[in-house]
Amino acid sequence: xxxxxxxxxxxxxxxxxxxxxxxxxxxxxxxxxxxxxxxxxxxxxxxxxxxxxxxxxxxxxxxxxxxxxxxxxxxxxxxxxxxxxxxxxxxxxxxxxxxxxxxxxxxxxxxxxxxxxxxxxxxxxxxxxxxxxxxxxxxxxxxxxxxxxxxxxxxxxxxxxxxxxxxxxxxxxxxxxxxxxxxxxxxxxxxxxxxxxxxxxxxxxxxxxxxxxxxxxxxxxxxxxxxxxxxx
Length: 232
Known about the structure:
Strand order of the largest sheet: 1-2-3
CATH superfamily of the largest domain: Intergrase catalytic core
Number of helices: 11
CATH topology of the largest domain: hpI Integrase, Chain A
Radius of gyration: 22 Å
Structural class: mainly alpha
Oligomer: single chain
Order of helices and strands: HHHHHEEEHHHHHH
Strand content: under 5%
Helix content: 40-55%
Shape: globular
């Protein structure tokens, strides 16, 4: 651990990650618990990355209809990439306004930790998906041209960002998920509910998204402090 810090100048999170790998290796060799008493460095807690309203508006303004349906699904479900890749039409319940993450054993897909879940979504998303092109003979909501699984969603995301003259390096599928989490929590949904919607095992993981709002200046400018700011 000291070697990783001094020789390779790794940050604390990278050191911890490498120590976990060492611990797993030793456990498989029949030597469990050897690293348990080592004092690991304190992990760095970074604020979650999220898209601003301006970024989202610019992004969706240049989307084609199919792209718009795809990325709004990411934004309004908080699904992971493989969960959207394996989304079937029968996972969508328009009457209940829910979208499910379900196992697809025939495709070798299982939700993370094998936990299926059902997420309520706004009616706008249901309407958007109802108008989304249903590729003939395909079970997938977002199918590739031949009707199979679409594995180029990240490439499509970056292409849209470039088209919108945004920094494509800042645009990825994971950030749609973190944007969803922070927005749901700021909207007043309790942490345990958002934990279930996100498919998190630990509540602490969800609580990372309790980040302070960034776009607050218009509201701050309206704050009045009697006798202090009137004449400024």
